[in-house]
Specification:
The chain has 109 residues and is of the alpha/beta class. 19% of the residues lie in helices and 41% in strands. It contains 2 helices and 7 strands. It has helices at residues 67-77, 99-108, and strands at 11-14, 19-24, 27-33, 44-47, 50-60, 82-87, 90-96. It has a 7-stranded mixed β-sheet with strand order 1-4-5-7-6-3-2. A hairpin with a 2-residue loop joins strand 4 and strand 5. The radius of gyration is 14 Å and the shape is globular.
């Protein structure tokens, strides 16, 4: 995957083969390495049939402690899948939207 392949800079489609697994604090999460890309990471990432949205916060790649696994566990309890994008020493947090959230958004329009 290269920046040239990103037609819409706000969204990206990748395969599970493009991700690596980070095992930390008892959780395993997928991570997309974006360190070599000149463009900023997209807001929306599609992996298979899952749509992940940037959650507006990041964690240190080294030194995230128990905070990152705790957030992952909370999201999973809420019925969400999570992933991260690694960029310049940070892990950008992404999560799927639950059906309830999708219905709330549709009702607010």
């Amino acid at each position: 995957m290269t920046a040239e392949q990103v037609i819409d800079p706000t969204r990206l489609e990748v395969e599970f083969a493009d991700l690596y697994v980070l095992a930390t604090g008892g959780v395993d999460v997928f991570v997309l390495n974006w360190n070599e890309e000149p463009s900023p990471p997209p807001f929306t990432i599609f992996v298979s049939e899952n749509q992940f949205l940037y959650q507006g916060h990041t964690y240190l790649v080294n030194g995230h402690g128990a905070i990152l696994p705790q957030w992952v566990a909370e999201q999973e309890l809420a019925g969400k899948l999570v992933m991260f994008v690694e960029r310049e020493g940070r892990l950008m947090a992404y999560a799927t939207v639950t059906e309830d959230e999708s219905e709330e958004e549709a009702g607010s329009e």
